[in-house]
């Protein structure tokens, strides 16, 4: 039987937390649930203490200074504290479905597989949350990838380097990974990223480890959509969106250079980084730099971010 630590970052999630925790307790494979409380301003800390006192599987942690450090730092603390062979993540306002670890039971029989991921669905908890989500994502009912993949194909797909469109994101709620490979490859969330640290982590993980897709056509977890979801607050291709994407791709480019990734991957990451970098520039200098970048490498005009140049 699998032995899984579930890491739940907790920040102002008192109204959702019990359902989230109960959904993880459902599984015999889940041996511990790590609540990482991140200086909430509601009653989350008191609720965490209550829940942890009622079940030995549930363990409560805070950052050493009891401060607020963000979801990435909270997940990193959870990784440090986790004692099981496998690690899974769950947001405090989301919950697992009963099939959450079904694919894992078969996939991890193959010893070369380091991690697996699946699809998540959506539940609308408020009218405003539903409107904002649908305005941004239309009627997308699953966050998933477009076809099964494993190994390097996953990494290439997340970078948009596959002949078929693979998809650029899978959700942490549907990821299960061996703790040993995180330690071996020194993989952690970038704590400087207050948003998109999950995308940053997934791309680095898919390069460093052997991932295999699990259930990608049906949900294994549910995202709760409400008034305070950060993902719906930023309008796509707005200045704020471009700025945050720039920080993400700069993190990835620095990582690619430090780890000496093959040139084809460094180039792809650089093009994405530079596209968002150019989108932040103004006036005559911006257009001079666009021409210079295109002169050096015309492929920058073919990236999926090309329209950022003209904003």
From TrEMBL:
<dbReference type="GO" id="GO:0016758">
    <property type="term" value="F:hexosyltransferase activity"/>
</dbReference>
<dbReference type="InterPro" id="IPR001173">
    <property type="entry name" value="Glyco_trans_2-like"/>
</dbReference>
<dbReference type="InterPro" id="IPR029044">
    <property type="entry name" value="Nucleotide-diphossugar_trans"/>
</dbReference>
<dbReference type="Pfam" id="PF00535">
    <property type="entry name" value="Glycos_transf_2"/>
</dbReference>
<protein>
    <submittedName>
        <fullName>Glycosyltransferase involved in cell wall bisynthesis</fullName>
    </submittedName>
</protein>
<keyword id="KW-0808">Transferase</keyword>
<feature type="domain" description="Glycosyltransferase 2-like">
    <location>
        <begin position="5"/>
        <end position="131"/>
    </location>
</feature>
């Amino acid at each position: 039987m699998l032995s899984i630590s579930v890491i739940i970052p907790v920040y102002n999630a008192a109204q959702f937390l019990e359902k989230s925790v109960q959904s993880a307790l459902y599984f015999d494979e889940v041996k511990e649930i790590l609540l990482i409380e991140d200086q909430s301003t509601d009653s989350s800390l008191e609720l965490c203490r209550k829940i942890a006192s009622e079940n030995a599987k549930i363990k409560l942690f805070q950052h050493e200074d009891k401060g607020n450090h963000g979801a990435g730092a909270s997940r990193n603390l959870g990784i440090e504290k986790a004692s099981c062979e496998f690690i899974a993540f769950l947001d405090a306002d989301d919950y697992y479905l009963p099939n959450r670890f079904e694919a894992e039971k078969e996939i991890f029989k193959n010893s070369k597989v380091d991690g697996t991921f699946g699809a998540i669905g959506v539940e609308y908890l408020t009218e405003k949350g539903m409107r904002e989500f649908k305005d941004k994502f239309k009627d997308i009912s699953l966050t998933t990838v477009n076809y099964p993949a494993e190994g390097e194909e996953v990494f290439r797909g997340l970078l948009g380097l596959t002949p078929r469109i693979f998809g650029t994101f899978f959700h942490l709620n549907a990821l299960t990974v061996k703790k040993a490979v995180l330690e071996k490859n020194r993989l952690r969330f970038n704590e400087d990223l207050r948003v998109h640290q999950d995308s940053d982590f997934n791309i680095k993980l898919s390069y460093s480890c052997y991932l295999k897709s699990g259930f990608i056509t049906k949900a294994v977890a549910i995202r709760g959509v409400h008034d305070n979801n950060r993902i719906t607050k930023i309008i796509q291709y707005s200045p704020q969106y471009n700025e945050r994407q720039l920080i993400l791709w700069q993190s990835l480019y620095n990582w690619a250079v430090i780890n000496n990734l093959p040139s084809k991957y460094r180039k792809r990451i650089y093009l994405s980084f530079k596209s968002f970098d150019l989108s932040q520039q103004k006036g005559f200098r911006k257009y001079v730099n666009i021409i210079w970048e295109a002169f050096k490498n015309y492929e920058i005009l073919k990236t999926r971010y090309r329209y950022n140049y003209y904003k």
